[in-house]
Amino acid sequence: MTHDLTYMLMTNANFSLVDSFKLTPLLTIVILMLGAFSLPLIKTKKGIYVVSLLLGSIAFLLNVANTVYVAMHGPYLFDIGHFPAPFGIVFKIGEIESVVSLFFTFVMLMISWYSYHSLEKEIKDHRVGLFQTLTTLLLASILGIVYTYDVFNGFVFLEVSTLAACGLIVIKDKEANIKATIKYLILSSLGSGLVLMGIAFLYSVSGHLNMLYIKEALSQNMTGNENLILLSLILFTIGLGLKGAMYPLHIWLPDAHSSAPSPSSAILSAVVIKAPVIFLIKLYYLVFGFDVVSHTFILDLLLIFGSLGMIIGSLMAKAQTELKRMIAYSSVAQMGYIFFGIGLGNKLGLVMAIYHVIAHSVTKSSLFLAAGSFIEQTGNKTIKDFKGIGKEMPITLGIFTLSALSLVGIPVLPGFISKWNLAMASIETGKIYLLAVILASSMLNAVYYFPIIINGYFGEENLDGKIYRSKSKPIKALLSLIILSVVMVGVGFMSGVLIDFIEKGIYL
Q: Quick count: other Cβ atoms within 10 Å of Cβ 432?
């Protein structure tokens, strides 16, 4: 890959300084991959953390530069290697790719920062280097999924991200983690097989792997291949639905999220289950096209599964007694909103699906890390044991509260923006009855989050015997969480700008 980068620099000598910003996506992946494989060579924990944070910071800053470039100059295609499309690999970078990768790199940087102050309490010392290697490799592969304009290249990045995610779950080396990893690996492998079959069917019809060329070939060869095209659509939906925790294919998620170390849980919920959804959206609209997808039952299927996920995921969350397991089921419900938005089949629904990918990424990472702090400082896991935690850990419960209020749908916070606009999108489609699904899901979100918040802050019997800030972590250990929370609020307050930016690059 470094050879490819050198080749690009040499053969594109006529690149202006401004155009050189087009190199930033490839440069980000190259730096992260080289960094991931160099981390095991570092002997000290401090050195590992310093290099990890440096890599995360560079990736974030490069994506800031790339997003600014796209905002000023518009989307672009970037050929990688010696051969142009359709033979070579191409990145497509537009508004959606740039803003999603920007937030993914930001969230991963904050989680890496948080892990500096907490990870050694959850895993053995000698595995810190492996954790940071897997995290860095995972981010590189996730960005590859977001950037790619090539279906097989996307599949390869998807598999790298799956293997890295398995490592992040099993790294705790407990029986529960091993079982959860095996379950995730088996189901994810099943999903991979289905996606690969979908790619094979597409190649048999089109003869291409580049998304643009596949779309052109499908439009010319549609007649006589309708069933094959529908079959590949179904395979992609089920395969990526498995990896993206779409209800009822989510069964690996609660065990994996609840048993993994808290930084791993935050990574799984914030980016690992989001990247397959971004890939699915690209396949629907950049490969098959809206006309093809909208004339099948696929979008209706997504709408049904999304609605069921929003309701049943919330009901399952309410039934849990362990805090992280409850948040894990909450992720099933929140992924339901994303599939619901896609399933609506209109522009606003798709825009809000992508907005919710970003909103949920910053919100749920903050929530998982706050919950991890509770568990780390108290040694408890069950919800009933966190009564009065607001007196012992007021700042952390404040962060937890803010994130929970967003997921419930309190105005101006990102969760409210998503739900309000999804309601508007439902009205646009004439399916007003879907408002009942959004309303019921929001009420259920409140039913399982409010008791934790209220019991954490109030009630004489809850606060009795608790000492003010006795279990609080130092501010420097909470700073990454505080920044995540501030950005989460900003995603709500600046939603207009963010939604307008996403809308410019929407595939419809």
A: 10
CA distance 175 to 188: 20
Distance CA 91, CA 224 (A): 31
State which amino acid sits at residue 173: D
Cα 446 to Cα 401, 408, 453, distances in angstroms = 11, 5, 10
Cβ atoms within 10 Å of 248's Cβ, excluding its own = 12
Rounded CA separation 473/167 (Å) = 28
Q: C-alpha distances in angstroms, 127 versus 101, 137, 357, 450?
A: 27, 15, 30, 37
Whether the pTM exceeds 0.85: the reply is yes
89 sits in which H/E element? strand 89-93
- Positive or negative CA dihedral for 55, 58, 61, 65? negative
Q: Classify burial at 291, counting beta carbons within 10 Å of its beta carbon; exposed 0-12, middle 13-18, buried 19 or more.
A: exposed
Q: What is the pLDDT of residues 34-63, one digit of tens each?
A: 999 999 999 898 999 999 999 999 999 999
Residue 2 pLDDT > 70, yes or no? no
Given this model, what pLDDT does residue 14 score? 55
Closest alpha carbon to 400 in 432, 363, 437, 361:
363
φ, ψ of residue 4 to 5 degrees: the values are -60, -40
User: CA 420, CA 366: separation in Å to the nearest integer?
Assistant: 22
> Taking every pair of C-alpha atoms in the chain, what is the biggest distance, in angstroms?
74
- Total Cβ atoms within 10 A of residue 223: 6
Please provide the size of the chain in residues: 508
For residue 438, list its beta bridge partners: none
| Cα–Cα dist 287/279, whole Å | 11
Cα 120 from chain centre: 25
Neighbouring-strand partners of residue 210:
150
Distance CA 422, CA 306 (A): 12
Query: At what angle are helices 95-116 and 347-378 packed, to 10 degrees?
Result: 0
Beta bridge partner(s), residue 382 = 322
Torsion sign (Cα): 166, 171, 175, 176: negative
- How far apart CA 250 and CA 167 sit, in angstroms, is 19
C-alpha span between 162 and 187 (Å, rounded): 11
The tokens for 23 are: 């190199």
pLDDT digits (tens, 9 = 90+) for 312-336: 999 999 999 999 999 999 999 999 9
Tokens coding 265: 């849980």
- Distance, in Å, from the CA atom of 234 to the CA atom of 262, rounded to the nearest integer, reads 34
The Cα–Cα gap between 294 and 296 comes to 5
Terminal C-alpha separation, the chain? 33
Alpha carbon distance 385, 374 (integer Å): 10
